[in-house]
Amino acid sequence: MRARLKSREGFTLIEALAAFAILALALTQLLLGVSGGARNEARADFLLRAARQGASHLDRLGVEGPAPFGVTTGRYPDGLLWKLFVAPGKTIDGPDGKPIATSFHARLVIERPSGYGEAATFSTFKIAPPPRPGQ
Prior knowledge:
This protein is α+β, with helices and mostly antiparallel strands. It contains 1 helix and 4 strands, in the order αββββ.
């Protein structure tokens, strides 16, 4: 008696495992692309907020009062941390020997509080009138 061969329908175990492996690789690449886009969006948001805060901070420097020489730190209302380095520059004297202007260099470093080490650095050089007597 001969055994009759049954026709097989469906997939073998090896074919199913190969299909799952290919699907897993494709999904991994898809998720990496999506997460990379989310990281880039978060970094762009940080840089936009840092640029706005930094420009405003440096614009006000020396206008509301004398520049605070040395290092100062703080936190903006949106949570970004800042560190300001201000160094005095040259004093410009008039023909009579009295100072007519002073200068200073400021460097502002803004960091994310998340601890990823992301930071934006801005710097400016300003010329201001000398402080008036009694200020």
